[in-house]
C-alpha cells in the first residue's frame, strides 16, 4: 500500500522559487529522508502533503485521499512537526499539548506522557520561557502522541543537543519497528543514515535523486590517508593512483577496488602510517551530485 503518492506536483512562486513537476511515493513502513539545500522545496512539499497549499498542477495523495480536498480527514491519520513551530506563548508546555490533543480529539494521554518522560523536559514551564530545544521537544510530543500511521517531520532535531539527537534517532528506529511510515526533512546526514531506508534529494524545486540507502552503503568507496617516509615516495605513489591528492609526505584518495592490489602498490614504499574509513553519506552525495547539492 502506498501511504504517499506525489505525481508531477507543481507550485511556481516565480523567480525560480517553488516546486516543479516532482513525483515520488512512500510505501507503508518506509522511513524516507528528504534532503536538500535551504529553499530547495522541502517545506513547500510537506505543506502540500498537509493540505495547507493548493497545487497548480499534479496531485498529492495520502492513503488514497487528495491532500488538499480531504485535508481534514487526512490530518486525523498524520502526525506532523513543522519546520517552525507556532506556539501559544502564554500557555505552559502541558497546556499547549492538551490544547492540540483536544483539537485532534485525542482522548488517551498515555503516549504523550511517555514521550514527555522520554524527551526529558518539564512540560509545566511557560512556553515563552522555553529554549528552542524545549519548544522542539513539545513539537515532537505533538507529532508522535497521536500514534498516527504516517508522520511528517520538517527538521525534527533543530535546536536539540547531540544527546537528544541520538534519543530522537532511537525513537525513529522504535517507531519503524511498530510499522510507522515517516517522511523526514533533515540537514543532518548522520541522522538520515541511521534512520532511513531511502533518500529523496530536492534541488531548485526538482527531485535530483531517489536512492536506496542500503545500496548506497554497499557502493561506498573507502577513504585512505597514507603517510610516507619522504615526499618523493609520496609523489611517486600518487602518480599511480587516480585522483590522489598529496600534501608533503601524506596522500589521500578514494579506493573501491581489491585492497590486495593497493597493498601490492604500497609494499615497495616506506610507509609510516595508514588510516582507512568508509565514505560518509554526505561525502557520497557530494561526490555524485556536486558540492552545491549538499
UniProtKB/TrEMBL annotation:
GO terms for molecular function: ATP binding; ATP hydrolysis activity. It comes from the Bacteria. Residues 4-229 form the ABC transporter domain. PROSITE patterns: ABC_TRANSPORTER_1, ABC_TRANSPORTER_2. Keywords: ATP-binding, Nucleotide-binding, Transport. InterPro entries: AAA+_ATPase (IPR003593), ABC_transporter-like_ATP-bd (IPR003439), ABC_transporter-like_CS (IPR017871), ABC_transporter_ATP-binding (IPR050763), P-loop_NTPase (IPR027417). It holds the Pfam family ABC_tran. Signal peptide: none annotated. Belongs to the ABC transporter superfamily. This is ABC transporter ATP-binding protein. It comes from Amedibacterium intestinale.
